[in-house]
Amino acid sequence: MLRPRLRIPRASSPFALPASRSSTAGQLLPLAYRSSYHTVPVLENIPEKESEDGQKYRSIDGFLSPMAFTTAWDYYQTHVLSNLNRLCAETNNDSLLLKDVVLATARDPAQAATFNYASAAHNNHFFFKCLSPTETKAEDMPAQLKDALVKSFGSLDALKELMINTATSMFGPGFVWLVRSDRPKDPHQFRVLTTYLSGSPYPAAHWRKQSLNTATDVGESSERGIQAGKQYLENSARGAGWNASAYKKDDFAPGGVLLEPVLCLNTWEHAWLFEYGFGGSPKSVLDKVKGGQAGVAENQKSGKEVYAERWWDFVNWNVVDRLAFPGGTKI
């Protein structure tokens, strides 16, 4: 009988992975999948630490403890990628990047499980790659990004409040995204959107074909149906008055717009419940934040709200800036 590779942390080191399994990317995956394409990447933005007994681990002091970090990243990412590799074995999806797997399977109900695991892994990695190992100040973000966000939301405080309140209000797990939305004559606008469960923020992943248009009875297999569908897709995706010569054509869902995610907040329970609990943060966490005195106001908030507030203080705004303006794009 095969024994599961995922181990319970040792009592002597309740948070650390065994040193031999945390040093390189891919070694966290079960042995049968180590030759597969999709492996757990190394988080270069969060350096490894070493415990007194020589165990390697990662954590973000004041935000995610070693056990919380290991659970939300190492264990969870291993789980979803192991299942993804099982489903992708000996298929074309095995050689694709995670985002490409998401886009390739989103519209095929027969590949719903593959989509779910690929999207979950992609979203979780996106969340972690935008984190800083130390506290940051939003006011110190690159000037171009700051100006664009203020233009879109009125102020940085307004954006912070919107993302935290949106995350707190979500009744169910998912992600809160900051996205760059490019529309004709109005480029580099930023918006906040949510995706639930393993939902994807990419507009090309939001449309599944149906074989019959119930309003017109024009099937997709007929030439008339194909042309009507293409025209409706283009018009609805770009809105009235769009200039075809100045707008990139993408295969969007009806009503979709061109956008690119630049930041996300993970609201799945495995990301915050261990550290923050249901109703307010554990005193051990608040002590670090308050210098030894856990605040009454924080304990009156939900654990997810306190988690979201702490997350804002650990966003790597330089990473967000590079994602928002790739190649040094100017507004």
UniProtKB/TrEMBL annotation:
InterPro entries: Mn/Fe_SOD_C, Mn/Fe_SOD_N_sf, SOD_C_sf. Residues 143-198 form the Manganese/iron superoxide dismutase C-terminal domain. SUPFAM superfamilies: Fe,Mn superoxide dismutase (SOD), C-terminal domain, Fe,Mn superoxide dismutase (SOD), N-terminal domain. It comes from the Eukaryota. Gene3D superfamilies: Iron/manganese superoxide dismutase, C-terminal domain. It holds the Pfam family Sod_Fe_C. PANTHER family: 37S RIBOSOMAL PROTEIN S26, MITOCHONDRIAL (PTHR43595), SMALL RIBOSOMAL SUBUNIT PROTEIN MS42 (PTHR43595:SF2). Component of the mitochondrial ribosome (mitoribosome), a dedicated translation machinery responsible for the synthesis of mitochondrial genome-encoded proteins, including at least some of the essential transmembrane subunits of the mitochondrial respiratory chain. The mitoribosomes are attached to the mitochondrial inner membrane and translation products are cotranslationally integrated into the membrane. This is Manganese/iron superoxide dismutase C-terminal domain-containing protein. It comes from Podospora pseudocomata.
